[in-house]
Design a protein that fits this description.
alpha+beta; 409 residues; 11 helices; eight-stranded mixed β-sheet; globular; binds flavin-adenine dinucleotide
Length: 409
């Protein structure tokens, strides 16, 4: 294939956190990589809790050192059953020290993370940044072509669709999706508060969804309040002072008086799963491949696992003399992701639905599950480890093995 400035080995579409990380990952492996998409760093009160494996991944990409001081460690995770259920268990706390970690992960504003990754991509020459929108995708024999809103087409051996939940690339490739929605929305905000959070996140399970406070640096936390859509709309319409008071009451004054800092968000809860993670010359990652409610800090962590797994499949294929965009490479990627994504989607969905039902068997099972988690040591530790980083099939950039870069033959 003749190479010119419009041709690259790997083109990533979408400059969100997942797309930026993909472009960095492939460029660091020595692939000529283009990243197509404009930066969106608007602040909407959304933070992302990055679990341990994701932090290792960002560290391997060289992006973590500059982000670390803007993130808060999650040393304790507390769950409080506030459903009023007959089988309400006492609060359960998990401490990272129990599984030998300093922190389960780190919480950071999504916009800050995107800015940090963009800075890392800008200062890394092998990534070519193309700020336009992708308008069409087609796979041809031996390559794929992405058309842009401005400028010449981009030709690549592999195109990575990181263009979010409404992925144009997924649609162009004819990959089927299943979508569903919940009668809930999430109110998001950044809060300043009088009492320290002691690096603990607290999730109140209410009858209408989880109400979660996650620490940020200083006496600040982020809020994700999942509740009935009409109630979420009512809350979103309150002025800052009235909303802060409602939040303080809902949090049982755990963190003292609160103030809202900066813009807030209102996000309808929905889900999406795909029939397959690839089509010829195309791999789906991040929300282009899966969407579920923001419960249990899973979405972006799963998106980073997609990227790290795709990178392993591409590097391994290269070692065996195959191209990044060959069908066998992408089938390997699919095999690595299918179970993880389906299990997590199902787990988040059933937890959410078990809160909403109010049915005694569901309440009993949830209550008994939490009770077992507080009292049975080995089970607690197994669940904590699995939550932070599944041990089976963890991609190499998420494992505790430095120096995995630089071995592309
Ligand atoms: C309230 C809330 C709280 C959350 N908390 C957590 C958490 O604690 N932990 C966690 O792991 N996850 C969390 N998530 C999920 C997480 O935010 C998402 O999984 C993640 O942001 C998705 O990233 P992405 O890069 O796949 O998609 P996006 O961030 O949507 O990025 C897609 C990018 O593609 C661009 N794009 C789209 N179409 C095109 C095109 N045609 N051409 C070029 N560019 C295009 C868009 O402009 C955008 O920049 C939360 C989500 C919500 C709503």
């Amino acid at each position: 294939m003749a190479l010119d400035e419009k041709t690259c080995e790997i083109a990533v579409v979408g400059a969100g956190a997942v797309g930026l990380s993909a472009a960095l990952a492939f460029a660091r492996d020595g692939y000529r990589t283009a990243l197509i998409g404009g930066l969106d760093t608007r602040r909407d009160g959304r933070t992302v809790a990055l679990l341990n494996g994701s932090v290792r991944f960002l560290d391997a990409l060289g992006a973590w050192p500059s982000l670390r001081s803007k993130a808060a460690p999650l040393e304790t995770m507390r769950i409080i059953d506030d459903t009023g259920s007959l089988f309400r268990p006492p609060p359960v706390s998990f401490r990272a020290g129990e599984i030998g970690l300093d922190a389960f992960g780190w919480n950071i504003e999504n916009a800050t993370l995107v800015e940090g990754l963009a800075e890392a991509a800008r200062s890394f020459d092998p990534v070519t940044l193309i700020p336009g929108q992708a308008t069409a995708f087609r796979a041809e024999s031996g390559a794929a072509v992405v058309s842009l809103s401005e400028g010449p087409d981009v030709t690549a051996g592999l195109v990575v669709a990181a263009d979010g939940r409404n992925s144009m690339l997924r649609r162009s490739a004819g990959i089927e999706v299943r979508t569903w929605s919940y009668s809930q929305s999430a109110v998001t905000a950044i809060l300043a508060h009088d009492r320290g959070h002691r690096d603990a996140s607290t999730e109140f399970h209410t009858r209408h969804g989880p109400f979660t406070l996650v620490p940020l640096p200083g006496r600040r936390s982020s809020l994700v309040w999942v509740t009935r859509t009409e109630e979420a709309q009512r809350l979103a319409a309150l002025d800052d002072a009235s909303l802060a008071l409602r939040i303080e009451r809902q949090a049982q004054s755990l963190l003292g008086a609160m103030r809202i800092e900066g813009p807030r968000g209102l996000v309808p809860m929905s889900g999406l799963s795909v029939s397959r993670f690839w089509s010829p010359r195309l791999a789906l990652v991040g929300e282009a491949a899966h969407v579920f409610p923001p419960i249990g800090a899973q979405g972006l962590n799963l998106g980073f696992r997609d990227v790290a797994a795709l990178r392993d499949a591409v590097v391994d294929a290269g070692d065996e003399g195959r191209e990044p965009g060959a069908d066998e490479t992408l089938q390997r990627y699919q095999r690595g992701r299918d179970l993880d994504v389906r299990l997590r989607t199902a787990a988040v969905d059933s937890l959410n639905r078990s809160l909403l039902t109010g049915l005694i068997p569901a309440d009993f099972l949830r209550g008994a599950g939490l009770l077992a988690l507080s009292n049975v040591g080995p089970l607690r530790r197994a669940v904590m480890r699995e939550g932070v980083l599944p041990r089976i099939g963890a991609p190499r950039l998420m494992q505790d093995t430095p120096g995995v870069y630089g071995n592309r033959s």
